[in-house]
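Field reference: sequence -> structure
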Amino acid sequence: MTASLALSLSPTEPTDRLLSPAELEAALRDIGARRYHNLHPFHRLLHDGKLDKDQVRAWALNRYYYQAMIPVKDATLLARLPDASLRRVWRQRIVDHDGDHEGDGGIERWLKLAEGVGFERDYVLSTKGILAATRFSVEAYVHFVAERSLLEAIASSLTEMFSPTIISERVAGMLKNYDFITRETLAYFDKRLTQAPRDADFALDYVTRHAVTPEQQAQALDALRFKCSVLWTQLDALYFAYVSPGMIPPDAWRPGVGLRVENGA
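Structure field:
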């Protein structure tokens, strides 16, 4: 885990030549085709119905931390944007996750997902049971956005170009294969099917217009590689702890903890 994140953060040599906007977009999409986490074995098991209920719970619990920190990441980036027109666009991402009022937004819908697989809300909110690797990866992403150039920070969000595919696979697969999953449980993903492409289009336009040197293009590509590593690393940790070899760290969630009484806790 540490090595892959460190590798993604290492300085990158400029590409040999300046890519056209179309070539840069193709290079960015190629990264997703090879590195996006829909290819991870854990996700293949999740989508194909080959995880048990507690393994699905572990995914929902750990993924909550990523979802909860996205508006923190976006607020960090928003504060760095020098132009009001850019801030007006980017702040919509925060609204999408935090909502306009109590009980609204993507984080609330993810909490409903976690409750739908049996968790007590307060336990999820506490983040006590998440894997250390989850916390490390997510916080590495927040620090990346805070510390790197605006171009790199925005480029790191371009995993959203690939999210409609994984969402479609996830929703269809989970509804088909898990009798404890309902469409209401997965309501989080409904809005993301339109929000993610909107956000990706804006970020892609920004990156292709502002990466105007070979070095800047290399930085944008490396930023997307880093973000793919952030997502992949979280699934590495889930697989290791809850699938094979099944070595759950001492402080991480164990089946039976934090669940509602009516679900047999």
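Note: The chain is about 65% helix and 0% strand.
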